[in-house]
Design brief:
The chain has 195 residues and is an alpha+beta fold. It folds into 2 domains: 1-42; 58-182, Thrombin, subunit H (Beta Barrel). Helices cover 20% and strands 24% of the residues. The strands form 3 sheets. Strands 3-4-5 form a 3-stranded antiparallel β-sheet, with no helix packed on it. A 3-stranded antiparallel β-sheet has the order 6-7-8, with no helix packed on it. It has a two-stranded antiparallel ribbon with strand order 1-2.
Length: 195
C-alpha cells in the first residue's frame, strides 16, 4: 500500500504541474505518457476478489508475474485469467472452486508458469475466453518506448499501435455463452461450493 500511495502521489504531482500550461487534450496525452513511464519505473500490480458480502480476498500477484493488470476473464473451471500489459503475458490464477485447480493450490495461487503465459505478446490489454476454451489476447501497443518519446524515431513511430490479436488454443476451460450469472463449464459440471 505504501508503494501505491507513493506512485499515486508522484502521478498527481506530475499532472498538477501540467495544469494551465497546455490544452486539455495535450495534458491528457502527457498524463498518459507519464503514467506509462511511472508503471515501468515502479513495476507491479495485483488483482483482488470482492465477494458478494463485500469481503475482499487478495491481493494476488502470482509471485510478481502480474504487472500492469488490464483485464480479467473467468473460465468454465472458475479460474481467473489476467492480462498483464507491462509484462506482456497472461496469468492464470486458481479461482474459488479449488477442486478444479491442480492439487495443493488455493484461491489466488498461480496456475500458469512463473512469468505467466507468453508467446509473441506485445503490450496487451484484453483477454477473452470463448466456448472452445481459446484465450484471445489483444496486442494493443508495440514499440511503446519509441512511440511515447517527444521526438520518436521516424522509422519506428508508426509501430506504436500493434492492433493484432494472439490466441492460445484450448488453454482455458470452455465457457457456455451467452454468459449470464456465474461462469459455468461448457461440458459436464463441477460441484458448486456450499454457500
Amino acid at each position: 500500500m505504501e508503494k501505491l500511495a507513493f506512485v499515486e502521489e508522484k502521478l498527481e504531482a506530475k499532472v498538477e504541474a501540467l495544469r494551465g500550461s497546455m490544452s486539455d487534450d495535450e495534458r491528457v496525452a502527457r498524463a498518459w505518457i507519464q503514467l506509462w513511464h511511472t508503471i515501468n519505473e515502479y513495476p507491479g500490480g495485483d488483482v483482488s476478489m470482492i465477494r458478494p458480502d463485500g469481503t475482499v480476498l487478495g491481493p494476488f500477484d502470482a509471485g510478481g508475474s502480474i504487472t500492469g493488470p488490464w483485464d480479467v476473464s473467468i473460465d468454465g473451471n472458475d479460474n481467473v485469467w489476467v492480462s498483464s500489459s507491462t509484462s506482456h503475458s497472461i496469468t492464470q490464477l486458481c479461482g474459488v472452486r479449488t477442486q478444479t485447480c491442480p492439487p495443493g493450490l488455493a484461491t489466488g495461487d498461480p496456475i500458469s508458469p512463473p512469468g505467466g503465459y507468453v508467446g509473441g505478446l506485445q503490450t496487451i490489454t484484453a483477454v477473452a475466453l470463448d466456448p472452445a476454451g481459446n484465450a484471445w489476447v489483444a496486442n494493443s501497443w508495440n514499440e511503446t518506448e519509441e512511440g511515447f518519446k517527444e521526438v520518436p524515431d521516424e522509422a519506428l513511430s508508426t509501430r506504436l499501435v500493434a492492433s493484432t490479436t494472439a490466441v492460445f488454443f484450448g488453454l482455458a476451460k470452455p465457457v457456455r455463452t451467452p454468459l449470464i450469472g456465474p461462469a459455468e463449464a461448457q461440458w459436464g459440471s463441477a460441484p458448486r461450493p456450499a454457500e
